[in-house]
Amino acid sequence: MQRFQYxxxxxxxxxxxxxxxxxxxxxDVWADMPEARESDVDRAVNAAEKALYDxxxxxxxxxxxxxxxxxxxxxxxxxxxxxxxxxxxxTGKIIRETSAQIAYVADYYRxxxxxxxxxxxxxxxIDKPDMDVWLRRxxxxxxxxxxxxxxxxxxxxxxxxxxxxxxxxxxxxxSEDGPAPLLEFARLxxxxxxxxxxxxxxxxxxxxxxxxxxxxxxxxxxAFTGGPETAxxxxxxxxxxxxxxxxxxxxxxxxxxxxxxxxxxxxNAQVAGIFAATGQSCVAGSRLIVERSVKDAFLSIIKRxxxxxxxxxxxxxxxxxxPLATKRQQDHVAALVDKSVQSGARLVTGxxxxxxxxxxxxxxxxxxxxxxxxxLAEEFFGPVLSVVSFETEAEALKLANDTRYGLASGVFxxxxxxxxxxxxxxxxxxxxxxxxxxxxxxxxxGGFRLSGQGREGGLAAALDYTRTKTIWLRTSDDPIxxxxxxx
Length: 487
Ligand code: NAD
What we know:
Elements: E1 2-3, E2 6-8, E3 11-13, E4 17-23, E5 28-35, H1 38-53, H2 62-78, H3 80-91, H4 95-115, E6 122-124, E7 131-139, E8 142-146, H5 152-166, E9 169-174, H6 180-192, E10 199-203, H7 206-214, E11 221-225, H8 228-241, E12 244-248, E13 254-257, H9 263-275, E14 287-291, H10 292-308, H11 327-342, E15 346-349, E16 364-367, E17 384-390, H12 393-400, E18 410-412, H13 416-425, E19 432-433, E20 452-453, H14 458-463, E21 466-474
Parallel strand pairs: 1-5, 8-9, 8-11, 9-10, 11-12, 13-14, 13-18, 14-17, 16-17, 18-19
Antiparallel strand pairs: 2-3, 4-5, 6-7, 7-21, 12-20, 15-16
The chain binds nicotinamide-adenine-dinucleotide (NAD).
Protein backbone atom coordinates (compact mmCIF):
# COMPACT_ATOMS: atom_id res chain seq x y z
CA MET A 1 0.00 0.00 0.00
CA GLN A 2 1.34 3.44 -0.88
CA ARG A 3 1.92 5.74 2.07
CA PHE A 4 1.68 9.55 1.99
CA GLN A 5 2.76 12.32 4.34
CA TYR A 6 1.68 15.88 4.71
CA UNK A 7 3.87 18.93 4.55
CA UNK A 8 4.14 21.44 7.37
CA UNK A 9 6.87 24.02 7.94
CA UNK A 10 9.11 22.45 5.32
CA UNK A 11 8.85 18.95 6.81
CA UNK A 12 7.12 15.79 5.62
CA UNK A 13 5.20 14.26 8.51
CA UNK A 14 3.01 11.24 9.22
CA UNK A 15 0.42 13.11 11.22
CA UNK A 16 -1.45 12.33 14.43
CA UNK A 17 -3.84 9.94 12.76
CA UNK A 18 -4.13 8.04 9.48
CA UNK A 19 -6.95 7.11 7.13
CA UNK A 20 -7.23 4.88 4.08
CA UNK A 21 -7.87 5.99 0.54
CA UNK A 22 -10.03 3.92 -1.82
CA UNK A 23 -9.36 3.30 -5.52
CA UNK A 24 -12.75 4.19 -7.07
CA UNK A 25 -12.10 1.88 -10.04
CA UNK A 26 -12.09 -1.18 -7.78
CA UNK A 27 -13.47 -0.10 -4.42
CA ASP A 28 -10.26 -1.40 -2.78
CA VAL A 29 -8.03 0.44 -0.33
CA TRP A 30 -4.85 1.48 -2.13
CA ALA A 31 -3.15 4.16 -0.01
CA ASP A 32 -2.59 5.23 3.56
CA MET A 33 -3.06 8.95 4.23
CA PRO A 34 -2.15 11.32 7.09
CA GLU A 35 -5.18 12.86 8.77
CA ALA A 36 -4.61 16.38 10.08
CA ARG A 37 -6.45 17.20 13.28
CA GLU A 38 -6.84 20.55 15.03
CA SER A 39 -3.32 20.54 16.52
CA ASP A 40 -1.76 19.86 13.07
CA VAL A 41 -3.84 22.67 11.57
CA ASP A 42 -2.64 24.99 14.32
CA ARG A 43 0.96 24.02 13.65
CA ALA A 44 0.57 24.61 9.92
CA VAL A 45 -1.07 28.03 10.34
CA ASN A 46 1.56 29.10 12.87
CA ALA A 47 4.29 28.02 10.45
CA ALA A 48 2.64 30.05 7.69
CA GLU A 49 2.41 33.13 9.89
CA LYS A 50 6.01 32.82 11.03
CA ALA A 51 7.15 32.46 7.40
CA LEU A 52 5.14 35.52 6.41
CA TYR A 53 6.64 37.92 8.93
CA ASP A 54 9.88 36.44 10.30
CA UNK A 55 11.35 34.07 7.76
CA UNK A 56 13.40 34.57 4.58
CA UNK A 57 10.15 34.85 2.59
CA UNK A 58 9.53 38.25 4.15
CA UNK A 59 12.76 39.48 2.53
CA UNK A 60 12.27 37.70 -0.80
CA UNK A 61 11.79 40.18 -3.63
CA UNK A 62 8.88 39.91 -6.01
CA UNK A 63 11.27 38.95 -8.81
CA UNK A 64 12.72 36.14 -6.68
CA UNK A 65 9.18 34.96 -5.93
CA UNK A 66 8.58 34.84 -9.67
CA UNK A 67 11.74 32.77 -10.19
CA UNK A 68 10.63 30.25 -7.56
CA UNK A 69 7.24 30.03 -9.26
CA UNK A 70 8.90 29.41 -12.66
CA UNK A 71 10.89 26.61 -11.05
CA UNK A 72 7.72 25.13 -9.59
CA UNK A 73 6.03 25.34 -13.00
CA UNK A 74 8.93 23.46 -14.60
CA UNK A 75 8.78 20.79 -11.90
CA UNK A 76 5.03 20.37 -12.39
CA UNK A 77 5.57 19.97 -16.14
CA UNK A 78 8.39 17.47 -15.61
CA UNK A 79 6.32 15.44 -13.14
CA UNK A 80 2.96 15.80 -14.86
CA UNK A 81 2.64 12.13 -15.77
CA UNK A 82 3.39 10.93 -12.25
CA UNK A 83 0.97 13.45 -10.73
CA UNK A 84 -1.66 12.49 -13.31
CA UNK A 85 -1.35 8.79 -12.46
CA UNK A 86 -1.76 9.55 -8.77
CA UNK A 87 -4.81 11.70 -9.38
CA UNK A 88 -6.33 9.04 -11.62
CA UNK A 89 -5.65 6.31 -9.08
CA UNK A 90 -7.03 8.26 -6.15
CA THR A 91 -10.08 9.92 -7.74
CA GLY A 92 -10.92 7.83 -10.83
CA LYS A 93 -10.60 10.80 -13.19
CA ILE A 94 -9.39 9.29 -16.45
CA ILE A 95 -5.71 9.46 -17.32
CA ARG A 96 -6.39 11.19 -20.65
CA GLU A 97 -7.89 14.11 -18.76
CA THR A 98 -5.53 14.22 -15.77
CA SER A 99 -2.40 14.13 -17.95
CA ALA A 100 -3.64 16.93 -20.25
CA GLN A 101 -4.93 19.02 -17.35
CA ILE A 102 -1.82 18.75 -15.18
CA ALA A 103 0.47 19.61 -18.09
CA TYR A 104 -1.62 22.79 -18.42
CA VAL A 105 -1.45 23.44 -14.65
CA ALA A 106 2.24 24.24 -15.22
CA ASP A 107 1.12 27.17 -17.42
CA TYR A 108 -0.97 28.57 -14.57
CA TYR A 109 2.13 28.68 -12.38
CA ARG A 110 4.08 30.26 -15.27
CA UNK A 111 1.42 32.94 -15.71
CA UNK A 112 1.59 33.90 -12.03
CA UNK A 113 5.41 33.64 -12.03
CA UNK A 114 5.44 36.37 -14.67
CA UNK A 115 2.96 38.47 -12.72
CA UNK A 116 4.84 38.42 -9.40
CA UNK A 117 6.91 41.56 -10.09
CA UNK A 118 4.15 43.38 -11.94
CA UNK A 119 1.95 43.92 -8.91
CA UNK A 120 2.46 47.62 -8.30
CA UNK A 121 1.47 50.14 -5.70
CA UNK A 122 0.59 53.72 -6.64
CA UNK A 123 1.32 57.36 -5.84
CA UNK A 124 -1.73 59.51 -5.06
CA UNK A 125 -2.17 63.13 -6.30
CA ILE A 126 -3.18 64.19 -2.81
CA ASP A 127 -5.10 67.43 -2.20
CA LYS A 128 -2.65 68.81 0.38
CA PRO A 129 0.67 70.61 0.02
CA ASP A 130 3.86 69.19 1.50
CA MET A 131 2.47 65.71 1.65
CA ASP A 132 3.41 62.57 -0.30
CA VAL A 133 0.91 59.73 -0.22
CA TRP A 134 1.36 56.20 -1.59
CA LEU A 135 -0.58 53.00 -1.68
CA ARG A 136 1.63 50.02 -0.92
CA ARG A 137 0.35 46.64 -2.06
CA UNK A 138 1.19 43.98 0.48
CA UNK A 139 0.36 40.29 0.73
CA UNK A 140 -3.04 39.88 2.40
CA UNK A 141 -1.59 37.46 4.98
CA UNK A 142 -2.02 33.79 5.82
CA UNK A 143 -4.50 32.17 3.44
CA UNK A 144 -6.47 28.97 4.01
CA UNK A 145 -7.29 27.04 0.84
CA UNK A 146 -9.74 24.17 0.62
CA UNK A 147 -10.42 22.15 -2.50
CA UNK A 148 -12.78 19.32 -3.48
CA UNK A 149 -11.68 15.97 -4.92
CA UNK A 150 -12.01 16.70 -8.61
CA UNK A 151 -9.01 18.34 -10.30
CA UNK A 152 -7.22 19.16 -7.07
CA UNK A 153 -3.98 20.23 -8.72
CA UNK A 154 -5.83 22.57 -11.05
CA UNK A 155 -8.19 23.97 -8.40
CA UNK A 156 -5.28 24.57 -6.03
CA UNK A 157 -3.04 26.11 -8.74
CA UNK A 158 -5.57 28.91 -9.31
CA UNK A 159 -5.20 29.75 -5.63
CA UNK A 160 -1.57 28.93 -4.82
CA UNK A 161 -0.19 30.63 -7.97
CA UNK A 162 -1.67 34.11 -7.41
CA UNK A 163 -1.21 33.90 -3.62
CA UNK A 164 2.52 33.18 -4.00
CA UNK A 165 2.88 35.88 -6.65
CA UNK A 166 1.37 38.32 -4.15
CA UNK A 167 3.74 37.15 -1.38
CA UNK A 168 1.21 35.35 0.83
CA UNK A 169 1.83 32.20 2.84
CA UNK A 170 -0.75 29.45 3.00
CA UNK A 171 -2.19 26.23 4.33
CA UNK A 172 -3.77 24.12 1.61
CA UNK A 173 -6.25 21.45 2.63
CA UNK A 174 -6.53 18.64 0.09
CA SER A 175 -9.85 16.82 -0.09
CA GLU A 176 -10.07 13.68 2.03
CA ASP A 177 -11.39 11.99 -1.12
CA GLY A 178 -8.25 11.60 -3.24
CA PRO A 179 -5.54 13.75 -1.58
CA ALA A 180 -2.60 11.85 -3.19
CA PRO A 181 -1.79 14.29 -6.03
CA LEU A 182 -1.66 17.36 -3.77
CA LEU A 183 0.41 15.59 -1.12
CA GLU A 184 2.85 14.57 -3.88
CA PHE A 185 2.83 18.13 -5.27
CA ALA A 186 4.17 19.25 -1.85
CA ARG A 187 7.43 17.48 -2.76
CA LEU A 188 7.75 19.75 -5.80
CA UNK A 189 7.13 22.86 -3.69
CA UNK A 190 9.95 21.67 -1.44
CA UNK A 191 12.25 20.91 -4.37
CA UNK A 192 11.55 24.29 -5.96
CA UNK A 193 13.08 25.87 -2.85
CA UNK A 194 10.25 27.83 -1.25
CA UNK A 195 11.24 28.62 2.34
CA UNK A 196 9.74 26.47 5.11
CA UNK A 197 6.21 27.43 6.10
CA UNK A 198 5.34 29.36 2.93
CA UNK A 199 3.22 26.55 1.50
CA UNK A 200 1.85 23.93 3.89
CA UNK A 201 -0.21 21.07 2.46
CA UNK A 202 -2.38 18.92 4.68
CA UNK A 203 -5.43 16.73 4.35
CA UNK A 204 -8.17 15.63 6.71
CA UNK A 205 -11.92 15.63 7.08
CA UNK A 206 -14.09 18.67 6.49
CA UNK A 207 -15.88 19.06 9.81
CA UNK A 208 -12.63 18.60 11.80
CA UNK A 209 -9.60 19.66 9.75
CA UNK A 210 -11.44 22.01 7.34
CA UNK A 211 -13.46 23.71 10.06
CA UNK A 212 -10.39 24.15 12.33
CA UNK A 213 -8.53 25.76 9.43
CA UNK A 214 -11.41 28.05 8.50
CA UNK A 215 -11.87 29.44 11.97
CA UNK A 216 -8.19 29.73 12.89
CA UNK A 217 -7.61 33.27 14.23
CA UNK A 218 -4.43 33.76 12.16
CA UNK A 219 -6.15 33.04 8.84
CA UNK A 220 -7.14 36.28 7.10
CA UNK A 221 -8.57 34.93 3.85
CA UNK A 222 -10.21 31.65 2.85
CA ALA A 223 -10.15 30.53 -0.77
CA PHE A 224 -12.69 27.75 -1.02
CA THR A 225 -13.86 25.47 -3.83
CA GLY A 226 -16.62 22.99 -3.12
CA GLY A 227 -20.36 22.73 -2.71
CA PRO A 228 -22.69 25.56 -1.57
CA GLU A 229 -23.70 23.75 1.63
CA THR A 230 -20.07 23.43 2.74
CA ALA A 231 -19.49 27.04 1.68
CA UNK A 232 -22.13 28.13 4.21
CA UNK A 233 -20.12 26.41 6.98
CA UNK A 234 -16.97 28.07 5.71
CA UNK A 235 -18.58 31.52 5.71
CA UNK A 236 -19.99 30.98 9.22
CA UNK A 237 -16.54 29.97 10.44
CA UNK A 238 -14.92 32.92 8.69
CA UNK A 239 -17.23 35.24 10.63
CA UNK A 240 -15.43 34.30 13.81
CA UNK A 241 -12.31 36.25 12.73
CA UNK A 242 -13.95 38.31 9.96
CA UNK A 243 -11.72 36.59 7.40
CA UNK A 244 -12.55 37.38 3.81
CA UNK A 245 -13.65 34.58 1.49
CA UNK A 246 -13.64 33.69 -2.17
CA UNK A 247 -16.03 30.90 -3.08
CA UNK A 248 -16.03 28.73 -6.22
CA UNK A 249 -19.09 26.55 -5.92
CA UNK A 250 -21.34 24.28 -7.91
CA UNK A 251 -23.42 24.80 -11.01
CA UNK A 252 -26.41 23.72 -13.06
CA UNK A 253 -25.15 25.21 -16.28
CA UNK A 254 -27.45 25.72 -19.29
CA UNK A 255 -26.31 24.55 -22.71
CA UNK A 256 -28.53 26.23 -25.32
CA UNK A 257 -28.75 24.86 -28.86
CA UNK A 258 -30.61 26.79 -31.58
CA UNK A 259 -31.88 25.14 -34.76
CA UNK A 260 -29.34 27.05 -36.87
CA UNK A 261 -26.35 25.63 -34.96
CA UNK A 262 -23.92 23.12 -36.41
CA UNK A 263 -25.60 20.22 -34.61
CA UNK A 264 -22.73 17.75 -34.93
CA UNK A 265 -20.27 20.23 -33.47
CA UNK A 266 -22.70 21.26 -30.71
CA UNK A 267 -23.29 17.58 -29.91
CA ASN A 268 -19.55 16.97 -29.46
CA ALA A 269 -19.35 19.96 -27.13
CA GLN A 270 -22.44 18.81 -25.23
CA VAL A 271 -21.18 15.25 -24.80
CA ALA A 272 -17.80 16.51 -23.55
CA GLY A 273 -19.54 19.21 -21.50
CA ILE A 274 -21.55 16.69 -19.49
CA PHE A 275 -19.70 13.37 -19.63
CA ALA A 276 -16.06 14.50 -19.37
CA ALA A 277 -14.69 13.88 -15.88
CA THR A 278 -17.73 11.59 -15.48
CA GLY A 279 -19.76 14.77 -15.02
CA GLN A 280 -17.78 15.68 -11.88
CA SER A 281 -17.07 19.13 -13.15
CA CYS A 282 -18.43 22.36 -11.69
CA VAL A 283 -19.02 23.68 -15.24
CA ALA A 284 -20.79 20.53 -16.47
CA GLY A 285 -23.33 21.60 -19.10
CA SER A 286 -26.01 19.66 -17.28
CA ARG A 287 -29.16 21.34 -18.65
CA LEU A 288 -29.60 21.03 -22.40
CA ILE A 289 -32.04 23.68 -23.65
CA VAL A 290 -32.70 22.83 -27.29
CA GLU A 291 -34.93 24.45 -29.94
CA ARG A 292 -38.00 22.22 -30.37
CA SER A 293 -37.71 21.86 -34.14
CA VAL A 294 -34.30 20.11 -33.77
CA LYS A 295 -34.84 18.42 -30.42
CA ASP A 296 -35.36 14.89 -31.82
CA ALA A 297 -32.49 15.20 -34.28
CA PHE A 298 -30.12 16.56 -31.63
CA LEU A 299 -31.16 14.00 -29.02
CA SER A 300 -30.57 11.15 -31.44
CA ILE A 301 -27.00 12.40 -32.13
CA ILE A 302 -26.09 12.77 -28.45
CA LYS A 303 -27.79 9.47 -27.55
CA ARG A 304 -25.68 7.70 -30.19
CA UNK A 305 -22.52 9.40 -28.93
CA UNK A 306 -23.35 8.70 -25.26
CA UNK A 307 -23.93 5.02 -25.97
CA UNK A 308 -20.65 4.77 -27.88
CA UNK A 309 -18.59 6.12 -24.97
CA UNK A 310 -15.93 3.68 -23.77
CA UNK A 311 -16.45 3.24 -20.04
CA UNK A 312 -13.56 1.52 -18.32
CA UNK A 313 -10.55 1.59 -15.99
CA UNK A 314 -9.41 5.20 -15.63
CA UNK A 315 -5.71 4.38 -16.00
CA UNK A 316 -6.27 3.03 -19.54
CA UNK A 317 -5.65 5.59 -22.27
CA UNK A 318 -8.60 4.31 -24.33
CA UNK A 319 -11.12 4.96 -21.55
CA UNK A 320 -13.46 7.92 -22.11
CA UNK A 321 -15.56 7.77 -18.94
CA UNK A 322 -14.27 6.38 -15.65
CA PRO A 323 -15.88 5.80 -12.27
CA LEU A 324 -17.27 8.40 -9.93
CA ALA A 325 -14.85 9.33 -7.16
CA THR A 326 -16.71 7.77 -4.24
CA LYS A 327 -19.47 5.29 -3.43
CA ARG A 328 -21.33 8.19 -1.77
CA GLN A 329 -21.29 10.05 -5.08
CA GLN A 330 -22.42 7.00 -7.04
CA ASP A 331 -25.36 6.52 -4.62
CA HIS A 332 -26.24 10.23 -4.83
CA VAL A 333 -26.35 10.14 -8.65
CA ALA A 334 -28.45 6.94 -8.69
CA ALA A 335 -30.92 8.29 -6.13
CA LEU A 336 -31.37 11.60 -7.97
CA VAL A 337 -31.94 9.80 -11.28
CA ASP A 338 -34.60 7.61 -9.61
CA LYS A 339 -36.28 10.63 -8.02
CA SER A 340 -36.30 12.41 -11.39
CA VAL A 341 -37.80 9.42 -13.21
CA GLN A 342 -40.47 9.17 -10.51
CA SER A 343 -41.28 12.84 -11.11
CA GLY A 344 -41.96 12.04 -14.79
CA ALA A 345 -38.58 12.52 -16.50
CA ARG A 346 -38.07 9.98 -19.33
CA LEU A 347 -34.83 8.01 -19.65
CA VAL A 348 -33.37 8.49 -23.13
CA THR A 349 -30.33 6.40 -22.28
CA GLY A 350 -28.39 5.12 -19.25
CA UNK A 351 -29.71 5.53 -15.73
CA UNK A 352 -27.94 2.62 -14.03
CA UNK A 353 -24.89 1.85 -11.93
CA UNK A 354 -22.64 -0.62 -13.72
CA UNK A 355 -22.48 -4.13 -12.27
CA UNK A 356 -19.21 -5.21 -10.71
CA UNK A 357 -16.48 -3.42 -8.77
CA UNK A 358 -15.88 0.30 -8.84
CA UNK A 359 -18.21 3.28 -8.71
CA UNK A 360 -19.30 3.41 -12.36
CA UNK A 361 -22.52 4.99 -13.63
CA UNK A 362 -23.82 4.96 -17.20
CA UNK A 363 -23.81 8.22 -19.18
CA UNK A 364 -27.43 9.22 -18.78
CA UNK A 365 -29.86 11.49 -20.63
CA UNK A 366 -33.21 12.48 -19.11
CA UNK A 367 -35.92 14.09 -21.23
CA UNK A 368 -37.59 16.52 -18.82
CA UNK A 369 -39.93 18.34 -21.23
CA UNK A 370 -43.21 19.14 -19.53
CA UNK A 371 -42.17 17.90 -16.08
CA UNK A 372 -40.82 19.51 -12.94
CA UNK A 373 -37.85 17.22 -12.49
CA UNK A 374 -35.40 17.64 -9.58
CA UNK A 375 -32.71 16.85 -12.13
CA LEU A 376 -33.23 20.33 -13.60
CA ALA A 377 -32.56 22.07 -10.29
CA GLU A 378 -30.11 19.94 -8.30
CA GLU A 379 -26.46 19.39 -9.09
CA PHE A 380 -25.64 15.72 -9.80
CA PHE A 381 -21.90 16.16 -10.09
CA GLY A 382 -22.20 13.06 -12.25
CA PRO A 383 -22.80 11.99 -15.88
CA VAL A 384 -26.45 12.99 -16.17
CA LEU A 385 -27.89 15.41 -18.72
CA SER A 386 -31.40 16.84 -18.35
CA VAL A 387 -33.14 18.08 -21.50
CA VAL A 388 -35.88 20.67 -22.07
CA SER A 389 -36.97 22.38 -25.30
CA PHE A 390 -38.09 25.87 -26.31
CA GLU A 391 -39.86 27.67 -29.16
CA THR A 392 -38.56 31.26 -28.83
CA GLU A 393 -35.30 32.95 -27.88
CA ALA A 394 -37.04 34.63 -24.92
CA GLU A 395 -38.17 31.23 -23.67
CA ALA A 396 -34.61 29.85 -24.03
CA LEU A 397 -33.22 32.73 -21.96
CA LYS A 398 -35.90 32.32 -19.30
CA LEU A 399 -35.12 28.60 -19.00
CA ALA A 400 -31.37 29.31 -18.86
CA ASN A 401 -31.82 31.73 -15.98
CA ASP A 402 -34.28 29.51 -14.12
CA THR A 403 -31.67 28.36 -11.59
CA ARG A 404 -30.20 29.42 -8.26
CA TYR A 405 -26.74 28.80 -9.68
CA GLY A 406 -24.84 30.94 -12.18
CA LEU A 407 -21.44 29.48 -12.99
CA ALA A 408 -21.19 28.71 -16.72
CA SER A 409 -23.31 28.53 -19.85
CA GLY A 410 -23.08 27.61 -23.52
CA VAL A 411 -24.85 29.06 -26.56
CA PHE A 412 -24.77 27.35 -29.95
CA UNK A 413 -26.05 29.44 -32.84
CA UNK A 414 -24.84 30.90 -36.15
CA UNK A 415 -26.83 34.09 -35.52
CA UNK A 416 -24.39 36.77 -34.35
CA UNK A 417 -26.89 39.30 -33.02
CA UNK A 418 -28.74 36.61 -31.09
CA UNK A 419 -25.45 35.39 -29.59
CA UNK A 420 -24.77 38.95 -28.40
CA UNK A 421 -28.24 39.28 -26.85
CA UNK A 422 -27.81 36.01 -24.99
CA UNK A 423 -24.31 36.75 -23.72
CA UNK A 424 -25.76 39.88 -22.12
CA UNK A 425 -28.91 38.18 -20.85
CA UNK A 426 -27.53 35.01 -19.33
CA UNK A 427 -26.87 35.34 -15.62
CA UNK A 428 -23.67 33.31 -15.25
CA UNK A 429 -19.99 34.08 -14.70
CA UNK A 430 -18.92 32.46 -17.99
CA UNK A 431 -20.68 32.40 -21.37
CA UNK A 432 -19.17 30.16 -24.03
CA UNK A 433 -20.46 30.79 -27.55
CA UNK A 434 -20.05 27.92 -30.03
CA UNK A 435 -17.55 26.34 -27.66
CA UNK A 436 -17.63 24.88 -24.15
CA UNK A 437 -15.29 24.19 -21.22
CA UNK A 438 -12.44 26.41 -22.47
CA UNK A 439 -10.28 27.81 -19.66
CA UNK A 440 -7.05 29.77 -19.45
CA UNK A 441 -4.87 31.32 -16.74
CA UNK A 442 -5.44 34.65 -18.51
CA UNK A 443 -9.26 34.52 -18.28
CA UNK A 444 -11.01 35.15 -14.94
CA UNK A 445 -13.39 32.42 -13.84
CA GLY A 446 -16.15 32.33 -11.23
CA GLY A 447 -19.86 32.35 -10.60
CA PHE A 448 -22.94 34.27 -9.56
CA ARG A 449 -25.35 33.49 -6.72
CA LEU A 450 -25.06 29.90 -5.39
CA SER A 451 -22.10 29.36 -7.70
CA GLY A 452 -20.03 31.64 -5.52
CA GLN A 453 -18.22 34.95 -5.38
CA GLY A 454 -14.78 36.17 -6.37
CA ARG A 455 -12.84 35.29 -9.51
CA GLU A 456 -9.90 32.98 -10.09
CA GLY A 457 -7.49 33.36 -13.01
CA GLY A 458 -6.26 36.56 -14.59
CA LEU A 459 -4.47 39.56 -13.13
CA ALA A 460 -7.24 40.53 -10.71
CA ALA A 461 -6.91 37.19 -8.90
CA ALA A 462 -3.36 38.11 -7.83
CA LEU A 463 -4.56 41.53 -6.60
CA ASP A 464 -7.20 39.73 -4.51
CA TYR A 465 -4.33 38.26 -2.49
CA THR A 466 -3.03 41.73 -1.64
CA ARG A 467 -4.20 44.50 0.65
CA THR A 468 -3.32 48.15 0.33
CA LYS A 469 -1.63 50.23 2.96
CA THR A 470 -1.85 54.03 2.69
CA ILE A 471 1.39 55.82 3.54
CA TRP A 472 1.38 59.54 4.42
CA LEU A 473 4.70 61.36 4.45
CA ARG A 474 4.97 65.03 5.37
CA THR A 475 7.67 66.66 3.25
CA SER A 476 7.91 70.00 5.08
CA ASP A 477 10.60 70.69 7.69
CA ASP A 478 8.45 73.41 9.31
CA PRO A 479 7.26 72.64 12.83
CA ILE A 480 3.83 71.03 13.03
CA UNK A 481 1.29 73.78 13.86
CA UNK A 482 -1.62 73.90 16.31
CA UNK A 483 -2.95 70.33 16.72
CA UNK A 484 -6.60 71.38 17.06
CA UNK A 485 -7.02 72.69 13.52
CA UNK A 486 -7.69 70.03 10.85
CA UNK A 487 -5.89 70.44 7.50
P1 NAD B 1 -17.34 19.75 -0.52
O1 NAD B 1 -17.96 21.07 -0.40
O2 NAD B 1 -17.97 18.58 0.19
O3 NAD B 1 -15.82 19.74 -0.04
C1 NAD B 1 -14.86 20.66 -0.50
C2 NAD B 1 -13.73 20.78 0.49
O4 NAD B 1 -14.22 21.41 1.67
C3 NAD B 1 -13.14 19.45 0.94
O5 NAD B 1 -11.74 19.59 1.09
C4 NAD B 1 -13.79 19.23 2.28
O6 NAD B 1 -13.04 18.41 3.16
C5 NAD B 1 -13.85 20.64 2.81
N1 NAD B 1 -14.82 20.86 3.87
C6 NAD B 1 -15.91 20.12 4.17
N2 NAD B 1 -16.54 20.63 5.26
C7 NAD B 1 -15.84 21.71 5.64
C8 NAD B 1 -15.99 22.68 6.68
N3 NAD B 1 -16.99 22.62 7.55
N4 NAD B 1 -15.08 23.68 6.75
C9 NAD B 1 -14.06 23.76 5.84
N5 NAD B 1 -13.87 22.87 4.86
C10 NAD B 1 -14.74 21.86 4.76
O7 NAD B 1 -17.25 19.50 -2.07
P2 NAD B 1 -17.11 18.14 -2.79
O8 NAD B 1 -18.38 17.40 -2.61
O9 NAD B 1 -15.81 17.52 -2.42
O10 NAD B 1 -16.99 18.66 -4.33
C11 NAD B 1 -18.05 18.87 -5.13
C12 NAD B 1 -18.51 20.30 -5.15
O11 NAD B 1 -17.46 21.19 -5.53
C13 NAD B 1 -19.58 20.49 -6.22
O12 NAD B 1 -20.64 21.29 -5.75
C14 NAD B 1 -18.84 21.19 -7.34
O13 NAD B 1 -19.64 21.87 -8.25
C15 NAD B 1 -17.91 22.06 -6.58
N6 NAD B 1 -16.80 22.51 -7.45
C16 NAD B 1 -16.72 23.83 -7.82
C17 NAD B 1 -15.70 24.27 -8.67
C18 NAD B 1 -15.58 25.71 -9.10
O14 NAD B 1 -14.48 26.12 -9.49
N7 NAD B 1 -16.61 26.52 -9.09
C19 NAD B 1 -14.76 23.36 -9.13
C20 NAD B 1 -14.88 22.03 -8.74
C21 NAD B 1 -15.90 21.63 -7.88
